[in-house]
Structures are given as C-alpha cells and as structure tokens.
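User: I'm curious whether this sequence folds into something compact or stays loose and floppy. Could you predict its structure so I can see for myself?
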Amino acid sequence: MYRSAMFAALGLALLASTGPASADQRVEGRWSLDVEATVAAARESGVPPEGIAQMQQELAPMAKGFFMTFKGKRLEVVAGPDTTNCDWTWGKYDIVLPSKCLDQTGKPNDLDPEREAIAMVDGRLHLLDKPSKLSLILQRQ
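Assistant: Here's the prediction. I'll summarize afterward.
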C-alpha cells in the first residue's frame, strides 16, 4: 500500500502540462529523497508503526537512485534506471507543473496529473500522492 503511494507520487515528474518555464533559484539544482523527513511526515500523518517500518525498508534503497534536477527551464527525473526530461513552470500555490515530458526512449509519459503534485513547502520539494495524502520529501543537495 505505501509502496504504491510512493511510486504514484513519483509519477507527477513524468506528466505533461503546458506553459513556459524559467530558471528559479528556489528549485535550481539537484534534489534527493530525504528518507528521515519523509518517514517523519508519514508518522505525523498517522501511519501506523508497521507501515512506518515498511516505508523505511522501501525508501532506503530508493533514496540511492532517485533524483530530480532543475536546470533553467528543464527538469530531469532519475528513478533507478529510468530517466525522464521535461519542461516546467510554476503553477498556483508553488506547484511545479512539468510539461512535454519524455522518457529515455523519447516517448511521452501519460500519468495522471489529477492524482499527484510536486509542491515547494518550507524550502523542500514534496511529491504528494493526493489519494493517500502521503508525500515523498526531497532536499536540495
């Protein structure tokens, strides 16, 4: 259950929407998964201890291979062996809106923008899975 929520949250990085993008110092650079902050947020949201233990077990290896890099108006997402490149822009409420996303083979991605969101919250990126209300939290490296 928690694993699917985490992977669903990753999906927004692979979405298509529209709009021009520009460099922004708030997101410029490389971001990595912050396991401690992600687990702490899940704990605060009421995830039971067995769910927390499962999350910790799944997030540790995931953290080694998941990165988001913003460079100018480009967003690169690396999730293990998969790489996706997008344009991006800001939406309302500090939401990052990726657009024109292509995977490493050059194929467009078709995930559901109504299900996930990437938001800047207190200087960190949150990949929010809307149905579960759980987030993966990323910190700038």
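Summary: The chain has three helices and eight strands. The first strand starts at residue 29 and ends at 33.
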